Amino acid sequence: MWQDQTRCAQGGMTALCAASEQIRTFARTAQQIRAGTVILQDGDEFDKVILVVDGWLSSSKSFEDGEAQIIDFILPGDILYATNGDGTTVGLTLEAITDARVSIVPVRTWQTMLKASPDLARAVGRIRAAAQARTSERLLRLGKGSAPMRIAFAILELSLRLRSLGHDMEETFHLPLTQKAIGDYTGLSSVHVCRTMRRLVRHNIIETSDHIDIRILDLAALSEIAGIDVERLEQEITPTAA
Amino acid sequence: MWQDQTRCAQGGMTALCAASEQIRTFARTAQQIRAGTVILQDGDEFDKVILVVDGWLSSSKSFEDGEAQIIDFILPGDILYATNGDGTTVGLTLEAITDARVSIVPVRTWQTMLKASPDLARAVGRIRAAAQARTSERLLRLGKGSAPMRIAFAILELSLRLRSLGHDMEETFHLPLTQKAIGDYTGLSSVHVCRTMRRLVRHNIIETSDHIDIRILDLAALSEIAGIDVERLEQEITPTAA
DNA sequence: TGGGATCATTAATCCAGGTTAATCCAGCCG
DNA sequence: CGGCTGGATTAACCTGGATTAATGATCCCA
Q1: What are phi and psi of B160, to 5 degrees?
Q2: Nearest CB to B240: which of A67, A85, A121?
Q3: Which of these, B139, B126, B73, B123, lies nearest to A83 by C-alpha position?
């Protein structure tokens, strides 16, 4: 399902590719990563920029006891600045959830590219801003939201992000995630994720098939539960072409 | 207490000021803001960059019912990119917690400055990276951490940030925050903030005076509870001079 | 074709933290 | 000096979600 976004000109990389010839080069030379591969470990030395061409990645942090929190999902067209304030180490564990293709760009090169193309710089700014807005929304819900709100929000957030990659919101969409992963993303136990999603299904708000293919039946109800206005959220968390 | 960081050459602006003459100019022309002033409202049109010269700000989001979550505290030397992915609106409410001084820089100007000074660009990159690392740590704790962990972490995080502004960690430090605000930051009710802090006091881990002047008595125990290694956290969340 | 894996689902039980409300304390103002 | 206000503190009670555990459903592989 995700394999069809391999060319730069389509899918999530549109904005970036339009902006810079060099990005297209990087996209072509992206390296293939197997699902499940850990690309970076929290604490590693690493100071490069990661460009996702295709597939889903997750960035997460965890405690020694193994409890993990997914910080963000990184989708095609996203850019990850994983480096800490010290400029030399990373504070995230980065893992490929599906098979993926990523380009790893040295900061030096990256900076040169940004300087060379104001369009690219603007696009990148938007992408970072969108990521930050997403994080703020999620922080709000982790701090103050109920389980149904967190789940509803996660579904809407991901479906909007997929939409901006060219998927249709009316359609069923596939999340390459276990309920455990959704729990790690929303700060809930997998059991409670299940309960909560089942409840949404029983109320005919969403429909699931194959356990994790989701279709939104009642968008109004779902956004009510999530505590958002869909148009507004889309503006916030989707990078607009500059 | 915070009024002594008014000149650019000292306090939190050191890194930035060292990097660029123009920043010094901005710092000198910073505008004075009264404690309690709401500088930006979630949803406002705004696309500038905000530089904090002096004082504490908070960025927050809230639900219609008034439940608020503080996304971050913004301290002297910090830079706030508040704009959403659409490039025109903000997704945060920005408020001055104490009297403050901030410079508001148009993106255009800002970009020019960054281009002109690679040192400044690097410093800004570090500052943004530090902010992101902070957010990740907090996301982890909001999702998976207990109340004591969240409180201990907040205390340590803020004391480290103050340390990087020149305060001494051994000393008592003042947080210009009510327990309600700490709750909004940690995703807890003010009552539970109180309970939890009292417990830390009873165990001689911290000491409080005037309700919210804090002194860390047992750093080892506190970082144990917070689930961190102090040195490591400091590297992550403190922007290193480039 | 029959185990093993890995996940989803559901029910039973428990507890961390929310809620409510009463009390206290300090600063402030008339 | 007395009342008022905004916070901190504490206790009593309740609930949402964690935990545990049992049961299914798929898929994989020998």
Answers
A1: -65, -40
A2: A85
A3: B126
